[in-house]
Amino acid sequence: MKLNKKVWLIVVIVIFAVALGVLFSIYTGQARELGQLEKALNATEKRESGLEAQHKTLEGQLTQAESDLKEKQKQFPESVESIEYDDDLFEIADDCNVGLTKLTASKPTNKTVGTVTYSVSSFVVVVKGSIDNILEFIYAIRTGEGFDLPDFPWSAKVTSVKINVSSGTATVNLVIYGYKR
Fold this sequence. Notes:
This protein is an alpha+beta fold. It has 4 helices and 5 strands.
């Protein structure tokens, strides 16, 4: 059976049209995907520039915080760092939900009673928090609640308390008596 030229021409045109249809469908799908990728890329670039700015801001804040920390650390006398009760004071403040904002101490002296020698230090502690939490802190200091007794037993005598209700701060003067076993 022999096909004439018209049939061959129609077959070629149909095959060509089907091929063009398939190519057009692939092209439009890829064009759509390319558009979505470009939108995602633009959004990512915007986020990246925002994140870079945020990163620079955070680096500046970190530098400032480190500088502030060094400045605040200078306010604490060296003698307090060598005494083991400072950890307890910070822990008690943390347990009572108050911030210990200032801590000054006198140089420790020794006091002997009988055969026992005590280390005696005067402290001025400034705490900030709610009045209830400040009172809880003072009570904990007075009763010895939270002292690290097995390692370095100590007790405190609160000599004066000055509470500023409007600022939520209290200045607590105390004497700490400690001894090592």
